[in-house]
Fold this protein.
Amino acid sequence: MRILKSVLLFGIISLGFSISSQVVQPFAIRFQTNQKGGITYVANTALTCNPSTNGCNTATAFSTASSTQNSNNNNNWAMQYVDVDGNPTTFMSSSDSLNLPQCSEITWAGLYWSASNTNNSSATPIGWANRAQCKFKVNNGAYQSLTADNIINSNTGYLSYFCYKNITTIVQNAGIKARFTLADMICWTGGQNYAGGWTLVVVYKNTNMVDRNLTVFDGLAVVSNGNNTTIPISGFVTPLSGPVNFELGVVSLDGDRGSTGD
């Protein structure tokens, strides 16, 4: 039997300028299983520039990195909340869709949301006390309030927070093809050098796929231009013999298109 290994790391702050790189919270196994299937994720941002600002729409449309175009770098833009749901009771909302192959079954789902302020400031955003809360809905259903199972607060690489919530039951009930919307996560707004977003990590079973050791690690590390960061991980399984195929997914925050070396 050949076992393929898929590993996902959560909590990488990617900074395009030189500061000390380090692991803030050691990475540990959040979920692990051996089965036919895979790991996928859906995600979106919580922040954007003001569309009425000259050049904002062009900057958000860029899909390739360019270190020669400053407008590719969101550090040059004042950030405001994304709010797509048309609901006057929310101040922030963004969506993404899960589309698993037929015959899939959802095994585990973890929701992560995070925000950072790289302005070299200790100022906290409006609503900071509620950063462990957000709202979440499936398709066109009603929002439900979530409170993080775990939260990491960090002032390494500037002030930031990272939240995790197990929402396996919610995603299982939604099915293998669904639209998810996260609302009202707390971010810094009104200035430059802010980042915020969310990721839903989904581990799924599919008997039409090959056997894999599926492992989700989470923790927090800061990486920056010109500084290497080593992130030790252990506990995953490989075959006793034969070829080993490795897939790695990373959830990161910031990492502007115009930045290099991070």
Remarks:
- Helices lie at 56-61, 168-174.
- The chain is about 5% helix and 50% strand.
- The CA atoms of residues 30 and 217 lie 5 Å apart.
